[in-house]
Design goal:
about 450 residues; alpha/beta; Rossmann fold; 2 domains; 8-stranded mixed beta sheet; 7-stranded mixed beta sheet; 15 strands; about 40% helix; elongated; transferase; PRTase_dom; glycosyltransferase activity; Phosphoribosyltransferase; glycosyltransferase
């Protein structure tokens, strides 16, 4: 364990003594977190310090998890991790995330270097320093970019590293130095007593450069949950909106899950990339969730879940949430049944429904009153749900669709399954989540008249 990044830098410098006092050595600190460590290393070795700029590509909706990284260089090609393969993040989504992050990478490079070019590393020994190696994606991206600049020797150095990732990175550098290597590596922050975010201003100070206040951006914090009053108490939702949101998607999970599950977060993040605002909701109060954990009974009260979902739609309209005039409902398992029932109560504002592994049989007779075009997504290996969705399809409005994701189970946890489901949902909502209020109301009247 290290007290802080300064302490880690001292320990790392002791392992790099062979490079002390050499005219050909240049230390590059990975911005932002690697720069405080690199400053201590460069001072201890008596060699110059500069900065290497790379950028993690966060999984949409789960940005703290890296699906890859980009770094400065001529190609800017993303370096992708196994996470992208496991979730099933398509290439065009990776490219979209990379394009967004390139703008931030370019801003940092201009700021840290005062508009000057990156240092010339041809024929030099470069020691690339970061504050730790977990997935190794950003370090690997920086290594590949530096290799293209033809240094004589390239050394990667970290205070602590995941042993497996270190072995993989070692094949791409001339030397890899790590004070600690462990097999059961969890997170870089676990190795520090104090591990604060590093700001642009701190990076510039460590580099001995004067900050331009207009260009400095402080690290941003995560947004908190929103409480919504409902019958029986209050429920919580996470609401996020891109600029110019084209509509609002409310996501309701199934029993035993939560709005914070990686599946809900990824689907919501993917929808935001497509321009939709999202609200991930827990339809049970905290007390009801505790009771459900013990009995698994609360999750099957579809009537109550549907009332809560209607309340969320009304709350969104009252609060003027971005895109609240065009609401789509995305539900999983029992949450899908609630979404279908809720859609019958708000036909004027619910433009489309997506059911993922939905227990649509629990919606009962309400299926015949649904007016919004509905996509039923079912895993090919989830035979019971596939049967009940097939039985439900004829009751849904014309244009609704049953789509099977090959090899997926009920919760879409198989490699590639979640990404495939999310892409189907995006295509469906882009096609149907439009402002067709007059048409929907006319269709609702027709269906109501036909059932009398």
């Amino acid at each position: 364990m290290f007290r802080d990044r300064t302490h880690a830098g001292r320990a790392l410098a002791e392992s790099l003594g062979a490079y002390a006092g050499r005219d050909d050595v240049l230390v590059l600190g990975m911005a932002r977190g690697g720069v405080p460590v690199a400053r201590v290393v460069a001072d201890a070795l008596g060699v110059p310090l500069d900065v290497a700029v790379a950028r993690k590509l966060g999984v949409p909706g789960i940005e703290e998890v890296a699906l890859g990284a980009i770094a400065e260089g001529d190609t800017w090609r993303p370096v992708c991790d196994d996470v992208a393969w496991f979730i099933g993040v398509p290439t065009h989504v990776v490219a979209c995330v990379a394009a967004r992050e390139r703008a931030e990478l370019a801003r940092r490079a201009r700021l840290y270097r005062g508009g000057h070019a990156a240092p010339d590393v041809r024929g030099r020994t470069v020691v690339l320093v970061d504050d730790g190696l977990a997935t190794g994606s950003t370090l690997r991206a920086a290594v590949r970019a530096l290799r293209a600049a033809t240094p004589a020797r390239l050394v990667a150095a970290v205070p602590a590293a995941d042993a497996t990732r270190a072995r993989a990175l070692a094949t791409e550098v001339d030397d890899l130095v790590a004070v600690h290597r462990v097999e059961a590596f969890r997170a870089v922050s676990d190795w520090y007593d104090a591990f604060p975010d590093v700001s642009d201003a701190e990076v510039l100070a460590l580099l001995g450069r004067v900050p331009d206040g207009a260009s400095v951006v402080a690290p941003s914090g995560a947004s908190g949950a929103t409480r919504i009053a409902v019958d029986g108490g209050a429920i919580e939702a996470d609401v996020e909106a891109p600029a110019g949101a084209r509509g609002l998607v409310v996501l309701a999970h199934g029993g035993g899950s939560s709005r914070g599950s990686y599946r809900n977060r990824y689907v919501a993040g993917r929808l935001r990339l497509a321009g939709f605002a999202t609200a991930r909701v827990d339809l049970l109060t905290a007390e009801e969730q505790a009771a459900d954990a013990a009995t698994a009974a609360e999750r099957f009260d579809v009537a109550r879940l549907a009332r809560r979902l209607v309340a969320v739609c009304d709350w969104a309209a009252h609060e003027g949430l971005p895109g609240a005039h065009r609401v789509a409902l995305v539900g999983a398992s029992t949450g899908a049944a609630a979404a279908l029932v809720a859609a019958t109560e708000r036909t004027a504002c619910v433009s489309a429904v997506v059911s993922r592994g939905g227990r649509v049989d629990l919606a009962g007779e309400a299926l015949w009153r649904v007016c919004a075009p509905t996509l039923l997504l079912v895993g090919g290996a989830d035979e019971p749900t596939l049967r009940c969705n097939g039985d439900a399809l004829p009751a849904l409005p014309r244009g609704s669709c049953l789509t099977v994701v090959p090899g997926a189970g009920h919760t879409f946890e198989e490699p590639g399954a979640l990404g495939a489901a999310a892409e189907h949902a995006v295509v469906w909502l882009e096609r149907h989540a439009l402002d067709r209020g007059p048409i929907r109301r006319a269709w609702a009247r027709m269906r109501s008249d036909s059932q009398r």
